[in-house]
Amino acid sequence: MPKLEGKIAIVTGASRGIGRAVCDRFSDEGAIVVMCDRNEPDAALLHRQHFRRLDVTQQDDWQALAQEVSSTFGTARILVNNAGIVDYAPIIEVTPDAWKRIMSVNVDGVLFGMQAFLPQMIAAGGGAIVNVSSIWGSVAVPGAAAYHASKGAVRTLSKNAAMTYARQGIRVNSIHPGIIATPHVVDVQERSITDAVIAKTPMGRMADPRELANGVLFLASDESSFVTGIELYVDGGYTAQ
Ligand code: NAI
């Protein structure tokens, strides 16, 4: 039996990388997937995948999306807040604009997504939210100050949401990728940081995005029905050291 048969799932940052892998894994399991991104998908959509253009920093657009999803498809039971951007500047060099840009996408986007979809999940009696943080939401490397701060915020905001809405049938968990082979990693100039993290990863390699998607599937599906407020590390053992 498919794990998400007929369930409506919202995924942000869905056009490439981890988000796309999550959407394809959800489709394998029978979900109706609403793929949200500010850019067009980088590959053709599969059966029951629907693209919606969304900039996660725009609260009004989130509210409009929630209404449109509800009237077009029905109640969303799964929300994956995955869209995120990186900046490698250390504290002394980070500009106010860069700080605000990172916080706006990585933190405001997660807040606005939960604000938009929690009411319909609560009204329907339950839902599962997965927020994508990072190993850098709980441990650090030098530099990337705004990114670390933003991913730490995603980690504790997820726990707060889990506590606040547990009695209404809502489960909220964060997932913490190590280095995953996506354009986010492969295109960056700061390859030296990436290589250093891979060298310190006990399993000695990057992950395929599908390995991260399997963790998101677990947290989004009823297989994790008694799991809320956790941090799931998919990091090849990096944070166990
Ligand atoms: P990516 O850069 O390959 O894909 C990110 C997607 O998000 C893109 O399609 C982009 O258009 C979209 N996006 C960016 N800003 C947006 C906005 N304002 N509104 C809507 N969509 C927007 O990134 P990747 O690697 O797939 O990362 C996904 C998530 O995983 C991010 O939150 C990232 O911080 C996190 N992560 C990734 C790691 C990695 O090694 N790839 C490691 C740890 C965390």
Task: Give structural notes.
The chain has 241 residues and is of the alpha/beta class. 42% of the residues lie in helices and 17% in strands. It is built from seven helices and seven strands, in the order βαββαβαβαβαααβ. It has helices spanning 17-28, 59-72, 96-124, 145-165, 183-186, 191-200, 209-220; strands at residues 8-12, 32-37, 49-53, 76-81, 127-132, 170-177, 231-234. The chain has a seven-stranded parallel sheet with strand order 3-2-1-4-5-6-7, sandwiched between helices. It is globular and about 45 Å long. The structure holds 1,4-dihydronicotinamide adenine dinucleotide. 1,4-dihydronicotinamide adenine dinucleotide (NAI) is lined by residues 12-13, 15-19, 37-39, 54-57, 82-85, 105, 132, 134, 177, 179-180, 182-185. 1,4-dihydronicotinamide adenine dinucleotide (NAI) binds next to α1 and α5.
CATH C-level label: Alpha Beta
Question: Proportion of β residues?
Answer: 15-25%
Bound molecules: 1,4-dihydronicotinamide adenine dinucleotide
- List the helices and strands in order: EHEEHEHEHEHHHE
Question: What is the topology, as strand order, of the major beta sheet?
Answer: 3-2-1-4-5-6-7
| Shape category | globular
CATH topology: Rossmann fold
What is Rg? 17 Å
| Total domain modules | 1
Please give the share of residues in helix: 40-55%
Query: How far is the N terminus from the C terminus?
Result: 38 Å
CATH homologous superfamily identity: NAD(P)-binding Rossmann-like Domain
CATH architecture: 3-Layer(aba) Sandwich
